[in-house]
Design goal:
The complex is a heterodimer. Chain A is an all-alpha fold. Chain A is about 70% helix and about 0% strand. Chain A has 16 helices and no strands. Chain B is mainly α. Chain B folds into 2 domains: about 30 residues; about 130 residues, no CATH class. The chains are: A mainly alpha, B mainly alpha.
């Protein structure tokens, strides 16, 4: 079948009432025989990037991590920058699905499903970097406390080990949350299926969901419990990631501001990624009636608020460095802004602090394309934040004789660029085959669903 | 399309999955815990040697000291396997025509070593020094078992890293006066732990547990 030039999702959704129209609006994306041309172009591009990712990882496995630019004194370099960047992206999904749920922010229902998907795909990307950076990626089980004949255990006093637990817990809870939320929507897909393959495939993942009131009762309970379990993870995971730095003795890392600063930064960067994905998705998949301008505006407000917290943290770091009277601290921060990595620092400041200020104007934060562009800028800025933290502090430590300057190799850049290929491949497959919007939840808070009052 | 995708018996999959998910991890853990342990895979290794030499006869009944043949253990990292000359000290007088000893006589005549098979074989990345252990009072029997009762030598202990570390962390369990190292039946006088601790303190025996102690 030829790929149509007209977007098949532009037409108004079919159905004679609001519930039917919501169902049609979401299910037709997965049920169409041919997705729009934009999907194929995006998927092909993502596949190319993914190929580059696999190629660069294969090269690194074959030659060792010396293929990357990490070299003393900057032993962490790109792999850890990318790890923190990707793990931070994930936090918006958990915040939207858990914290906003507990706070009864019902607007979350339009965006929570794909924000959760984004979380999981970001964690997948994040996990690959430390997994490769251990140098022998075929021995990752050494990171887990498995009883063994050698009597060897991981170093439980190391925050890198806490990371293993924090991130694996986070991945587990996020996947459970995401999957359980999709069960009613899978059942809708199954019931509308026109082929045996779809009927059986969605039937298996729907796990026998029939929508009885008893099932709904259990489902709501489980959802609440999972939300309560996931809420501390919003704070804990990136706090633990920040301990990788904060428990070290290095000036610029050894500060108590790190956990809240990292969590705010993660939510900031995560929401930026959500809007980056939401704007094209609502455009190409005809979801403008579900993900409305109001949703974009609310997310932009979150971006602005967390961006201000991050900006405050940048300022506070300088204040504390001066107020501490510690000359190493002072040097580190002056060097950060005016040293050899000053270009990266000012990129970070303008992307994370200056550009989000445009959202003070309602015309900007209600404009999808401005939202998309500022979202992309914030993503760049948050990547540079991690780069600045890692590279400026490591490259100039206590002894001037051991100073250095980190330069990424082409393999570094290919691995970073390629990780976006993995992320977008997973996301585009999700858009094509899974319920992109939580239909049942959206219906519950639609005007028709609230006919009996909000209770 | 049918309302129900799956036949009625599919309801059973939930119980089956529950049992499988509950039991399979336990089974796997047990399987690996027991099956992959050096206690299972390595202990009891008993290769056929080119000469059916009986330690039970020589070291047990005849009471020849370990160091008569393995004469380097106190000075060297390596415990020497004796050359045919050592055997011929006696066997030029006794059992001179025994067909079982033919390889020994041949080796004695030609100077070509008998190809004994190493039983206690540590990996090449693990460094072990016999003299360091023997001179500090770790008995032969502690690692090699009752060799004086073995018709054919076999591996008695797992020789795993955890097994080494057990003793390096608590050496007092396995210490004896150095003059008793080859005694297969020595028992500490009085309370074994008290003896070991006192002996350890007196002789400053502090075995290291750094990686580089054994992995050089």
């Amino acid at each position: 079948m030829a790929i149509s030039d007209v977007n098949p999702f532009e037409a108004p959704p079919a159905g004679d009432n609001m519930f039917a129209r919501i169902t049609d609006n979401v299910t037709r994306i997965a049920e169409t025989a041919t997705p729009p041309r934009a999907w194929y172009i995006a998927f092909g591009f993502a596949q190319l990037l993914l190929l580059m990712f696999l190629g660069s990882l294969g090269y690194v496995i074959w030659n060792g991590i010396g293929a990357w630019g990490n070299m003393m004194p900057v032993a962490w370099g790109f792999p850890i920058v990318n790890f923190v960047f990707w793990i931070g992206i994930g936090h918006a999904g958990t915040l939207i699905s858990a914290v906003l749920f507990l706070f009864r922010q019902n607007w979350r229902t339009a965006i929570n499903r794909f924000a959760e998907a984004m979380t999981i795909f970001a964690v997948v990307c994040a996990g690959i970097f430390p997994g490769m950076h251990i140098g022998r990626p075929w021995l990752p089980y050494y990171m887990f406390p498995i009883p063994n004949q050698m009597d060897m255990w991981p170093q439980f006093r190391s925050p890198l080990e806490w990371d293993v637990f924090a991130v694996s817990t986070y991945a587990t809870v996020s996947i459970l949350f995401w999957y359980m939320g999709m069960i009613p929507d899978f059942a809708t897909f199954r019931d509308r299926a026109t082929t045996t393959v779809r009927r059986v495939a969605y039937g298996i993942v729907a796990m026998g969901w029939r929508g009885s009131s008893r099932q709904w009762h259990v489902y709501e309970r489980a959802y609440l419990i999972l939300a309560a379990l996931a809420t501390p993870l919003v704070l804990s995971v990136h706090s633990v990631v920040s301990f990788d730095f904060a428990t070290a003795q290095l000036p610029g890392w050894h500060t108590t501001i790190f956990p809240p600063y990292f969590v705010a930064g993660a939510i900031f960067g995560g929401f930026a990624m959500v809007v980056t994905l939401a704007v094209p998705a609502r455009q190409f998949f005809g979801l403008k009636r579900i993900i409305t301008i109001r949703h974009l505006e609310l997310m932009n407000k979150v971006i602005m608020a967390t961006g201000l917290i991050v900006g405050y943290a940048y300022g506070m770091e300088f204040f504390v460095a001066w107020y501490s009277g510690n000359k190493y601290e002072v040097f580190t921060f002056v060097n950060r802004a005016f040293g050899p990595y000053g270009w990266a620092y000012w990129t970070m400041i303008s992307c994370n602090v200056l550009f989000p200020q445009l959202h003070w104007f309602p015309q900007v934060r209600r404009n999808p394309w401005a939202t998309l562009i500022i979202g992309l800028i914030v993503n760049v800025g948050m990547w540079f934040e991690r780069f600045v933290i890692i590279c400026t502090s490591l490259s100039r430590d206590f002894l001037p004789s051991s100073w250095g300057y980190f330069v990424p190799t082409p393999v570094d850049l290919m691995t970073l660029g390629g990780s976006f290929g993995l992320f977008f491949t997973l996301f585009l497959l999700f858009c094509r085959y899974l319920p992109m919007v939580a239909m049942s939840e959206v219906k519950a808070f639609s005007p028709a669903g609230l006919a009996h009052g909000d209770h | 399309m049918n309302l129900f995708v799956f036949p009625r018996w599919a309801n059973k999959t939930r119980q089956i999955a529950g049992v499988v998910l509950g039991v399979a991890p336990l089974y796997l853990i047990g399987l690996i815990w027991y099956g992959a342990s050096p206690k299972t895979t390595d202990v009891g290794y008993m290769p056929e040697q080119p000469v059916p030499y009986s330690h039970a006869l020589h070291a047990g009944q005849l009471g020849i000291d370990c160091r008569y043949c393995h004469n380097t253990v106190e000075d060297s990292s390596h415990a020497a396997v004796p050359p045919a000359q050592t055997c011929m000290n006696c066997h030029s007088k006794v059992w001179t025509t025994s067909p079982k000893l033919a390889p020994i006589r041949e080796s004695y005549a030609t100077g070509k070593a008998v190809e004994w098979i190493k039983v206690h074989d540590l990996p090449d990345y693990a460094y072990f020094n016999h003299s360091a252990h023997v001179t500090r009072g770790v008995g032969c029997v502690t690692c090699h078992g009752r060799v004086d009762q073995m018709e054919q030598v076999y591996q008695h202990e797992p020789l795993s890293m955890g097994w080494c570390l057990d003793c390096h962390r608590e050496p007092e369990k396995n210490l004896r006066p150095p003059e008793e190292v080859t005694n297969m039946t020595w028992a500490p006088p009085g309370d074994p732990v008290a003896f070991g601790k006192a002996f350890r303190a007196k002789n400053h025996i502090n075995p290291p547990t750094d990686c580089s102690t054994c992995h050089r």
